[in-house]
């Protein structure tokens, strides 16, 4: 599997330092608020687990499974595959995402959550690819901005592989070259 990695972008230690930094800022910003973390399955699971332990506040959390991808391609159509199981009326929602690419999925999700009565909605992401953005999307907490490479590890996958890697790396193009034809 390591031969599938072209380059390691962020080591496990770098990721954990960034999570600590983000957690401290979120703790400061959400003091006295009704914080509700909303993790986006499956990719955000490692980040969600780490960030919630670094936020020194009482909070609630749940997960949604929302998709607009197949393989390496964004389909442009957003589908809710698993919805949250609790009311978010009056809660301060912090969407936890592994990576923001086109922004289509989160733009759609933000509108859905607003219509459900959330007090506020913000986004925290480990990675952001601004060059790929197709919609305007405000991101309050951003771990790292990256170039347009296909990344894996720390929850991010290629066809459900590589999610459990403790680091973030660039996938070698030869692994998915046929997928883009």
What does this 3D model show about the protein?
This protein has 181 residues and is of the alpha/beta class. Helices cover 24% and strands 35% of the residues. It has four helices and nine strands, in the order E-H-E-H-E-E-E-H-E-E-E-E-H. It has helices at 12-29, 45-54, 104-115, 173-176, and strands at 5-10, 35-41, 60-70, 73-82, 92-100, 120-128, 141-145, 151-152, 168-171. The protein has a six-stranded mixed beta sheet with strand order 4-3-2-5-6-7, with helices on both faces. A three-stranded antiparallel beta sheet has the order 1-9-8. Strand 5, helix 3 (104-115) and strand 6 (120-128) form a beta-alpha-beta unit. Helix 1 (12-29) packs across helix 2 (45-54). The model has no long low-confidence stretch (mean pLDDT 91).
Secondary-structure map:
Elements: E1 5-10, H1 12-29, E2 35-41, H2 45-54, E3 60-70, E4 73-82, E5 92-100, H3 104-115, E6 120-128, E7 141-145, E8 151-152, E9 168-171, H4 173-176
Parallel strand pairs: 2-3, 2-5, 5-6, 6-7
Antiparallel strand pairs: 1-9, 3-4, 8-9
The helix/strand order is EHEHEEEHEEEEH
Q: Tally the helices: what do you get?
A: 4
Q: Which quaternary structure do these chains form?
A: single chain
Please list the strands of the largest sheet in the order they lie side by side.
4-3-2-5-6-7
- In whole angstroms, how far apart are the ends? 23 Å
Instruction: Give the low-pLDDT segments.
Output: none
Structure classification: alpha/beta
Global mean pLDDT: 91
- Tell me the number of strands: 9
Largest sheet: 6 strands, mixed
Q: What is the general shape?
A: globular
- The helix fraction, in percent, is 10-25%
Strand content: 25-35%
Integer-rounded radius of gyration? 16 Å
């Amino acid at each position: 599997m390591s031969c599938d990695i072209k380059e390691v972008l962020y080591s496990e230690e770098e990721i954990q330092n960034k999570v600590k930094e983000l957690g401290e800022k979120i703790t400061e910003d959400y003091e006295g608020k009704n914080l509700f973390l909303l993790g986006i399955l499956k990719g955000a699971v490692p980040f969600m687990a780490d960030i919630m332990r670094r936020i020194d506040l009482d909070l609630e959390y749940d997960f949604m499974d929302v998709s607009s991808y197949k393989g390496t391609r964004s389909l442009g159509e957003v589908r809710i595959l698993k919805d949250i199981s609790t009311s978010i009326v009056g809660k301060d929602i912090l969407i936890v995402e592994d990576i923001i690419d086109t922004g289509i999925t989160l733009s759609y999700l933000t509108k859905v959550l607003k219509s459900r009565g959330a007090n506020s909605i913000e986004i925290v992401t480990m990675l952001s690819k601004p060059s790929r953005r197709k919609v305007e999307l405000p991101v309050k907490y951003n771990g790292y901005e990256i170039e347009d490479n296909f990344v894996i590890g720390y929850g991010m996958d290629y066809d459900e592989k590589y999610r459990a890697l403790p680091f973030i790396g660039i996938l070698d193009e030869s692994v998915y070259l046929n997928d883009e034809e």
